[in-house]
Write a structure and sequence with these properties.
five-stranded parallel sheet, globular, Rossmann fold, 12 helices, alpha/beta, about 350 residues, about 40% helix, four-stranded parallel sheet
């Protein structure tokens, strides 16, 4: 690695790093990274390493992050069926200004937030609920959330971190740990029992994040998009994806754009993406493009306000094509640029499979 005359490592500038990323180059050595990039990378790797401690008792952590008495609280109940990513979620929420309390017994939830309406300052609180707790039961969980809502002005968001079974089994095997609900049986048996136990919570969660296809930095981006900016009302994420990689498990609405003209078959456009002007021009020239996008906007103009009126805190709109690189990316960008006109709240875009080289 390059070293300057004074013995210090030489970093790339932010502009040099940005140029490499926009060109699609791999960032592999320290001299290709900016100082801020390396600092962030170390943080992400540290968070990932901490997931190895996911079986350790967390009561010390809960004591360390005991909340202050503050009003205008935004409370979050985190229910995880994949403990490793839950630990990452706690760390990222701390970075976003939340006080984190992990493995809180449900019977203490109401006491935890009692009196928080009396302070003029705002505090954001993230509460992690472990299904291994002796008092855990889905009906009891919702009972306690309702009790908190009835006696305080809390804005409560339930986050469910999900993942497909195959990925979960791989993660358990990597850590060489049995499933906590089936320590003497195959991991798949434990997952089946776990999903049966918490399926109702997933169905009723305000926000669902599928951690399966996400690298730690991508998971961090999703958390920051959803919870990074305080504010009232519903936030929306528009995401592109590849059908051949599977449907996004967190999607509320899914649109299939595989019928549009496919730039993949043009050798000049194949290495580009829907973020490039040339690709957008080809897709938008499709005879049905304009009427299809107009129809999407008409439907979303009706449904998005209704979702918000029903109390939904986060809406995920997924747009898919074959490879998740050209058509779905362009339509996602089109909708994400238009939605702020309809919705005066946060609108984020996320291209789940754009990192792949498939067309």
């Amino acid at each position: 690695m390059p070293i300057t005359g004074n013995g210090k490592m030489q970093f790339a500038s932010e502009e040099e790093l940005k140029t490499r990323l926009e060109a699609g180059d791999l960032i592999e050595t320290p001299d290709q990274m900016s100082e801020a990039y390396i600092k962030g990378l170390k943080r992400i790797l540290t968070v990932s390493a901490d997931t190895e401690l996911m079986s350790a008792p967390s009561y010390t952590r809960a004591a360390k992050h005991a909340p202050s008495i503050n009003a205008s609280l935004s409370a979050m109940a985190i229910v995880q069926d994949e403990l490793g990513h839950a630990n990452i979620a706690y760390r990222l929420l701390e970075d976003l200004g939340f006080e984190a309390v992990d493995n809180l017994p449900l019977k203490l939830l109401k006491k935890l937030v009692a009196g928080l309406d009396d302070s003029p300052e705002e505090t954001k609180l993230a509460v992690g609920i472990d299904i291994r707790g002796r008092d855990f039961d889905p009906a009891y969980f919702f009972q306690k959330l309702n009790e908190v809502s009835e006696v305080t002005s809390l804005a409560i968001t339930t986050l469910f971190v999900d993942c497909d079974d195959a990925t979960l089994i791989g993660r358990y095997k990597e850590t060489r740990r049995p499933h906590p609900l089936a320590p003497d049986r195959p991991i798949a048996d434990g997952l089946k029992l776990e999903r049966r136990l918490i399926s109702d919570i997933r169905d009723r969660a305000d926000v669902v994040i599928d951690s399966g296809p996400l690298q730690p930095w991508q998971f961090k981006d999703r958390m920051r998009d959803i919870f990074g900016t305080a504010g009232d009302g519903m936030s929306t994420t528009v995401m592109s994806f590849a059908f051949k990689k599977g449907l996004p498990r967190e999607a509320d609405l899914v649109f299939d754009v595989r019928f549009l003209a496919n730039p993949h078959y043009d050798p000049d456009l194949r290495p580009l993406s829907g973020l490039d002007k040339e690709v957008g021009e080809v897709v938008s020239k499709d005879v049905d493009f304009a009427s299809y996008v107009d129809s999407l906007k008409t439907m979303l103009a009706l449904t998005v306000p209704r979702f918000e009126k029903e109390g939904k805190s986060h809406l995920t709109i997924a747009v898919g094509c074959t490879g998740g690189r050209h058509r779905s990316v362009f339509i996602t960008e089109t909708l994400a640029s238009w939605l702020p006109q309809l919705q005066d709240h946060k609108v984020h875009r996320h291209h789940r499979d754009l990192v792949t080289k498939s067309g």
